[in-house]
Amino acid sequence: MNVAEALVARLQAVGVAHIFGVPGGECNLDLIAASDKFGVDFVLTRTETAASIMACVAGELTGTVGVAMTTRGPGLTSAVNGVAFSDLDRSALLLIADGYGPDQEFVSHQRIDQKAILAPLVRASAFLSRNGAVGQLNSLVSAALGQPPGPAYLEVTGAEIRAPAKEFLPHARAASPALSEISFAPARKLLSSAKRPVLIAGLQARSAAACTALRTFATETRCPVLTTYKAKGVMPETHPLAMGLYAGGVAEEPLIRDADLVLLYGFDPVEGPPQAWRYNEITTLELTNVAFDLPLLEPATSIVAEISSTLAALTNDVCFDGWSQAELAQHKERIWSAARVPSNAGLSPTALVESAMAHLPTDSRIAIDAGAHMLPVLHLWKCADLNQSLISRGLSTMGFAVPAAIAASLVDRTRKTVAFTGDGGLMMCLGELGTARESGAQPIVVVFNDSALTLIEAKQRKRQLPRIGVSFNGTDFCRIAEGFGWRACRVSTREEADAAFAKAAVADEPFLIDALINPVTYDEIIARVRG
User: What's the pLDDT at 506?
Assistant: First the structure.
């Protein structure tokens, strides 16, 4: 077994089923051959950014590290946006790229300091050594899966990767602090004195254990739950105690201001909007897996330990009786109706989302791009499980939804996967429609087509600036998708949308719906959700 084969065998052993990337002519080819030998699928993407995003999503859904591979120079630099997504959206990624060895010191072609470029983003990096390659891999995987999860980088050369493998070491993870080492007294005091708490669940709650602990706590204590965008679905959103989304906006503000305690459960400051915390006058208790360098607020008490065990330890003998059922129902209806803004002129964003909800399976997994369209999708579509909704919140990068949906479709073929994207976001990753077709992925892509960067245009209009630099020429995405071998429909009315979604729901191939929407209601949606 050579080093390339040993590395791929080790990745397979920790649950990696796909490697995504754009190869060059050097070490990538050895890794592709090794992947084929060990039954790990190599997915050829059109861009390195998409490869990194796909890898992250695959890792999130399978509970392991995602793996992306690029060539040196422009391949690595093109992947940086995906590495930044891994960093700020707390998704474990191992990026493998070609480098130059000591015997190539004379080479300047495509030579850049790749390790230095990635240094501000990665949790760890290594230059491959044939004598300790698998041990290096284990360390990088551990770093990527640590707290908070993020990217790790392995630079490889032909001389090292083709050498015989010397060792095969077990994989190890750092242990969490033992509960016996933690003082729960301050937290228990806050909980025992609270009558009307509200729990805000964040992205750390997206593990199975954290999700189970949350649902048990909420139902046993009758504590209402808000979730961040990343944590959408960790509490089934049809449950009476699932209030809706925390967006740092006005929709959820009355509920939080009616509370006497805010319990932050796995909340990551990267999920907060770029503004100060609104609720400093309300006592806050924080349960988090990790302490952050840039905290959004100073809680009254913070417990840094594995959050599911912490919450379970606090569940006993606690019950909150200050909220009435009718009161919570009223709060929930107001939050969930904020984005429901119909229009009599053309196809509104709300009508498009409601059409999708009416025709697609309720267990569909959704991937949502950055842009104005994300508000009606997030605040209307109800999810029942963790990781049923995928979004970039920390980085908030455009061009996320389509690669994410492709990866999700490959990892889990038992359910429909739907990408909701704007026209601007789709144009950043159009080539990945070809990746979907070739890889066998079968996502549904819904394009909110209004020929503009609508969210940026709304900010421009709010500042009374001239409308410059936010508009596109009209694009027929239906014809483009058909050119990649997709089925596609173009719609401009609710009736046409209903017919298109009915077809997409039973299609056994990639399906794109190019929706010509009227963006006039976006301003009201933004005002009602965010303020």
Answer: 96
> Is residue 106 scored above 70 in pLDDT?
no
Average pLDDT of the residues in 67-92: 96
In three-state secondary structure terms, 270 is helix
The CATH classification number of 179-335 equals 3.40.50.1220
Decide if 208 contacts 385 (C-beta within 8 A). Answer: no
Q: Tokens 């065990």 map to which residue?
A: 309
Q: What does each C-alpha distance from 467 to 456, 461, 525 come to in angstroms?
A: 10, 7, 20
List where CATH 3.40.50.1220 sits in the chain.
Answer: 179-335
Q: Are 142 and 268 in contact (CB under 8 A)?
A: no
Task: State pLDDT tens for residues 28-63.
Answer: 899 999 999 999 999 999 999 999 999 999 999 999
In the chain, CATH 3.40.50.970 sits at: 3-161, 338-529
What count of residues does the chain have? 531
Task: Determine the average pLDDT of the residues in 310-331.
Answer: 92
Query: Nearest 5°: phi and psi at 173?
Result: -120, 150
Residue 301, H or E segment? strand 301-304
Q: How far apart are CA 346 and CA 358, in angstroms?
A: 19
Return d(Cα 235, Cα 213) in angstroms, integer.
10
Q: Which fold has domain 3-161?
A: Rossmann fold (3.40.50)
Cβ contacts of 501 within 8 Å, gap of 6 or more: 355, 356, 358, 359, 360, 513
Name which of 174, 137, 186 is nearest 9 in CA terms.
Answer: 137
Q: Can you name the CATH fold of 338-529? A: Rossmann fold (3.40.50)
* Percent of the chain residues topping a pLDDT of 70: 95
DSSP per-residue letters across 322-386:
SS-HHHHHHHHHHHHHTT----SSSB-HHHHHHHHHHHS-TT-EEEE-SSTTHHHHHHH----ST
User: Could you write out the three-class secondary structure of 495-520?
Assistant: HHHHHHHHHHHHCCCCEEEEEEECHH
Query: Over 90: is that where the pLDDT of 102 sits?
Result: no
Cα 86 to Cα 308, 479, 506, distances in angstroms? 23, 33, 33
What residues pair up with 22 in beta bridges, in sequence order? 70
52 three-state secondary structure: helix
Q: What is the pLDDT of residues 347-366, one digit of tens each?
A: 999 999 999 999 999 999 99
What is the per-residue DSSP string for 191-254?
Answer: HHH-SSEEEEE-GGGGSHHHHHHHHHHHHHHT--EEE-STTTTSS-TTSTTEEEE--SSSSSHH
